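Supplementary Note 3. Input sequence used for the single-chain structure prediction.
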Amino acid sequence: MNTTPLFHGSDIEKICAYYHLDKNTVVNFGANVNPLGLSESVKKSLSSHLEVLSSYPDRGYTSLRGTIAKYCGVSADCILPGNGSSELIALLIEACAPKRALVLGPTYSEYSRELSFSGSTQDNYHLREEQDFVLDIDNICRTLGHGKYDFLILCNPNNPTSTAILRNDMERLLSFCSSKDIFVMIDETYVEFAPDIEAVTAVSFTKIFDNLCVLRGVSKFFAAPGLRLGYAVTRNFALLEKMKKKQIPWSLNSIGVFAGELLFRDKEYISRARKLILSERVRMYEALKKMPAFKTYEPYANFILVKILKKGVTASDTFELCIKDGLMIRDCSSFQCLDGEFIRFCIMLPEDNSKLLETLKKLEILQK
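The predicted structure, written as discrete structure tokens, is reproduced below.
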């Protein structure tokens, strides 16, 4: 019987303590954070502008909203900054007060947690492994129509499957939901990693549909999870006003406001990060497809989901194989709706990715 504890992707301290490792020597493939780290130019500017801590941020975040608006190609009136996507998820669900919600899964557990506080009924719509976790639009529309739902939650690209709903299918889904008075929340935490951002993002649809709110943040692509900066985009101004009224004043601090403007303007960093992720993702995906021990699904985010096909080898076995080589991947056993042996790992620097591929090849000779 396997008694190895199940760890979350951010539990590097617990994992290193359990396996007696120095966390500084472990490559974290489980956190899905851009391996370039925080932009050097942003670091330099932040360190020389710490005086911003001596004053309150603009309560309306006017300049930051203008910068985000330019970055996204929407009006600043449509944007609400917040203390990470987590705050905005909570504010949106509270403001919408859904009676019955459908969550596309497997996915991030925070959606379900926040819905549980709202008193709403919630169901999961399972992406199907036999369809490579690609959403069947006709089927989900039938489910929504028959189930009397008023709220739909999507993560696009999705975590942990790394699959995506592309533009034409998204428009069909949003149009159907609009006709049935179903509000749609789309978490686009990983959209900047997509091969073609415009083919995946729903931000432009906020100009058409008022039953839509898109959430984004800086934790993953800009490698700034500690900044706690997220933003909501919607043209439903009545909803935005409800969210603002519930939001704690100055929920985003002065450093977050200042750094946020720098991040969204750093075109050199954005270009370099996308070039790295796009090239390494293709290399890893192609290499994994050649390994008989795995089934790999086409990735749109900065991570890859893999199903272990080798008989008798579990996700826990694979996690241990990797962690003993100083490589921390994610055992996906804790994700709801994922049946079978799945692991997930993000794209890191080329030398680290190569090391992970070599470690995974060991599964071919692993005896169980």
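The mean pLDDT is 94. The CA atoms of residues 172 and 186 lie 15 Å apart.
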